[in-house]
Amino acid sequence: MFFYVLVLAGVALMCAALVVLFRGDAAGLRRWVWAAVIVLVPIVGPAVFLLVNRSGRKAKEKIPR
């Protein structure tokens, strides 16, 4: 039973990361590289993407324009 919960959590995390990726401002090759990392490295790939994306967004907000 625990295995199914873990698989479901992994799939949900992967879907959430892909939605954030394709709704974001990443373009071209960078977007497809991240998509490959998210899909090919379960659990860790989506988690790393969401953490990097979150810190990148905060850095962009701090830059004065």
Automatic annotation (TrEMBL):
Transmembrane segments: 33-52
Protein location: Cell membrane
Every Cardiolipin synthase N-terminal domain range: 13-52
Pfam families with a match to the protein in the record: PLDc_N
Coarse class of the protein's main subcellular location: membrane
Organism placement in taxonomy: Bacteria, Bacillati, Actinomycetota, Actinomycetes, Mycobacteriales
InterPro entries referenced in this protein's UniProt entry, alphabetically: CLS_N
A Gene Ontology cellular-component term: plasma membrane
Name this protein carries in UniProt: Cardiolipin synthase N-terminal domain-containing protein
Species, as recorded: Corynebacterium frankenforstense DSM 45800
Keyword Membrane found: yes
Record keywords, A-Z: Cell membrane, Membrane, Transmembrane, Transmembrane helix
Membrane topology designation: Multi-pass membrane protein
Domain of life: Bacteria
